[in-house]
Structure formats: structure tokens, C-alpha cells
Amino acid sequence: MPPRHRNPAARKDELNEAARLADQLQAAGYTKRDIARILARDPSLVSQFYTKNKGAAFVPALQQVLAAVQTGGITDLPELAAIAARHTRRRTTASGNRARVRAKAVLITPTGSGTGRAGAQAIASGSARLRPLIAEAARQSLRLAFTVRLAKTGYVHPSGSRTDSPGIRRDVTQRADHTEERSYGSAQTGGHDAADFARRVDAASGDVTAAVHQWLVETGRIHPDAQIIHLEIRTWRLR
To answer: Which residues are paired to 73 by β-bridges?
Structure first.
């Protein structure tokens, strides 16, 4: 029996309001990842507008964003995100109370020590899970270091180069798949100002991966087309 093909018009009728608004934004040139950034959420949530009937709480925000795009001519993601934030409301329970949101706590010890990691899937969505760690480190005026992993050919300098911060074979891990991990910053070298990186992340619309990538390109450490495939952030307090 030949496979049955669903009528696209029927599918459109089945979409909830959040998915229909998301479709209109995509027709205007925005990707699901863009929409997720505008809503300050993970891209997987936007996909769940279609697959799990989610997104009702974001309908007012999406309506205002769509109006800003279609009638106001606003295209800047941070500006659209600011509009969405003013119209995003937390879910309520049946009793009318604000629903609790499940979230992993960001742990920074009294000494300022904190660690966060992002693998390939999280990196593809901007390593959003690392943003709260960086923001809290900035609030506490902590220092910050990070380790990146990418293809060896993505680095400008060979491992061991004194021009690159790891120095001679220090803080470099070479792997069998032709990728290499390099660490930038440590307690011995003083690390980086967490507040500076928090500003970089904000300027990148919350995309931690893009902020770190931009720093590495600006400082001449990686090629512009290099792709980060693993990222780790570490924090500490200066003594």
C-alpha cells in the first residue's frame, strides 16, 4: 500500500497558535534558532511548538514580535528580544499560582569555584546553559578561564607555540580524531575578567559559543571558519 501524504493545508490547521506565529516569523526570514534567541529559550522549545503543542505562554510575545517585524520594520534580534521579554508571562497552575520551572542550579562555591561544560548539541544552540554561570561569575567579580576543542587545523598556531596562551605543550590535549583541546586562562596566569565575557555574551544575544569564538578569532588564535565542538568554563576568586 503506497504511503499516505498529509495535506499541507490540513497540517497548518492542526498547528497551535505559537507554531503558526513561528511559521510566520520563519517566512519573514528568521530561523527557529533566531526565534529561540528572541524568546530567550532553547531552540528545542520552538520545535516543541510543533511536536508537543507547547508555546501557549509565548503567544503574546510572538504576536508583538511579529507585529514589530511586519509593521515596525524592526529586524535586530536584541531589540526583538527586548520586545518579547516585555510580553512573556510565566505559566500558571490550575489554582492560578505561577508554575515552577525545572532548572539546573548553577553552583559557584564560596571560594568562587564553578564549572560548566557544553558538548556538541548544546554548542549548536549557543551553549545557553553556560550563560547563567558566566553572569553569576560577573556579578561576583570572579575570574574566568575556558577550554575549547576543535580540529587541529582550526588553530592558527601549532600546539606548543608561545604565541598562543597555553605555551609549550602546557594545557594542550591532543586526541585521536585530529581534534585538540586548548585552555585559555588559569589561576597562575590570572585568567580573564568574567564581567568582560558576560558583556561579550550579551552582545552576542546570549550565544556563549559565538562570544568565545569571536574572542579566539579577534586574538588571532583560531581561523574564522573553525568550529568549536566542546567548551568548558571555569571560574574562581582572586585571593
So the answer is: none
Taking only the tens place, the pLDDT of each residue in 177-206 is 788 888 888 888 888 999 999 999 999 988
What is the reported pTM?
A: 0.56
Half-sphere exposure of 5 (CA within 13 A, CB side): 4
16 or 123, which is more confident: 16
The H-assigned helical ranges of the chain are: 8-14, 17-27, 32-39, 43-51, 59-70, 77-86, 120-124, 131-139, 194-203, 208-218
CA distance 151 to 143: 27
Residue with the bigger pLDDT between 63 and 77: it is 63
**What is the per-residue pLDDT for 8?**
44
The predicted pLDDT at position 125 comes to 77
Mean pLDDT of the chain: 82
CB-CB contact of 142 with 194 (8 Å): yes
Residue 187: other Cβ atoms inside 10 A: 14
For helices 131-139 and 194-203, angle between their N-to-C axes, nearest 10 degrees: 130
Rounded-to-integer distance, Cα 126 and Cα 207, Å: 4
CA angle 38, 58, 96 (to 5 degrees): 140
Distance CA 217, CA 150 (A): 13
Residue 190 region by backbone torsions, left for phi larger than 0, else alpha for psi between -120 and 50, else beta? left
In sign, the C-alpha dihedral spanning 53, 55, 57, 63 is negative
